[in-house]
Amino acid sequence: MPLPFTPLDPVALTLDLARVPSISGAESEVVATVEQLLRGRGWEVQRIPVSPGRDDILATTGTPPVLTLSTHLDTVPPFIAPRLDGDRLSGRGSCDAKGIAAAMICAAERLRADGTAVALLFVIGEESSHDGATAANDVPTTSRILINGEPTERVLATGTKGALVATLRTMGRAAHSAYPHLGHSATRDLVRLLASLDAVVLPTDPVLGATTVNIGMVSGGVAENVVAPSAEARIMVRLVGPSDTVESRLRDWAEPKGNLEFTRLVPPVLLRTVPGFETGVVAFATDIPRLTNWGTPYLFGPGSIHVAHTDHEFVSAADLVRAVDDYVRLAGAALAAAEAPAATAV
Predict the structure, then answer these.
(1) Which of 71, 207, 208, 210 would disulfide-bridge 240, Cβ 3.0–4.6 Å?
(2) Could you confirm whether 126 is annotated as catalytic?
(3) Same domain, yes or no: 262 and 327
(4) Sign of the torsion formed by the C-alpha atoms of 109, 114, 115 and 117
(5) Domain membership flag for residue 201
(6) Please, which residues bridge with residue 147 across strands?
(7) Could you give the angle at the alpha carbon of 118 between the alpha carbons of 1 and 133, nearest 5°?
(8) Does residue 25 lie in a domain region?
(9) Domain with 236 in it
(10) Active-site choice (126, 127, 150, 232)
(11) DSSP letter string over 101-162?
(12) 162 has a pLDDT exceeding 60
């Protein structure tokens, strides 16, 4: 049965992809939709297992790829149905990153027609644990260039900050709130610690800028009339260098009042650029550090990260169309840079 959109129209394709809910962990329907589309267009499609019932999609032209266009198909919750109102295409995934996937498919069709050995790699789990990219990196590939798609406002990124997640826990002793001296308040310790967080001196980088810290979630206690026996806060650090220094300084800040547990880590990355594109740093983390086997990475995409993950997420329809040309042009420039002879030291 033919799909209800024009495959080479990035706006119509974005709408159809965005109509399929694909919150991280529940991406199977959108993966099947993309697989059906690409097979129908004559691509050789391979599923890459990630976890039971969850797969990435790798599509090739039948020849070993030298260049790969890649982005993610999962989204953050909640699902928001797409809508096209004039030039504004809104809805969950419109800019992060189903619009990017649509533009990449259209660009890859043009590159394939020109004889470029191109691949499309669509991963899952980017918004949670990057498990899709981790699984894809174990697949043998001949790709020498990776163009990763995220909403950079059509700016070619010179680097991305990393991400480090930490949980800060404080422990107290429960007591009746009328007799607080008989207990010890974990929530009070937590609040006092968090109030002093901005005084911690963290690293800066001449390209990536300052390390930043976000207190994303705070919880604790059992009731308003009980001295809180425990409390915790979830913190995300945007890294500009190795995590060791940040972890050490945050432990010095937290102890002895609190205990820090560090979990998810994505390192920062400095990226290549090519002439002809506006450039700049992005502060968010991407799948690029988990896709090291896919070639020299570039990061580019339509849409703004400032509206991603919000209830007013959108992308300009005109920018989706422009992005198709951008990806074709970026692919050509990246291939030319890869084929240029290395400079000889004098």
Answers:
(1) 208
(2) yes
(3) no
(4) negative
(5) yes
(6) 69, 298
(7) 85
(8) yes
(9) 162-266
(10) 126
(11) HHHHHHHHHHHHHTT--EEEEEES-TTTT-HHHHHHTTS-----EEEE---BTT-EEEEE-E
(12) yes
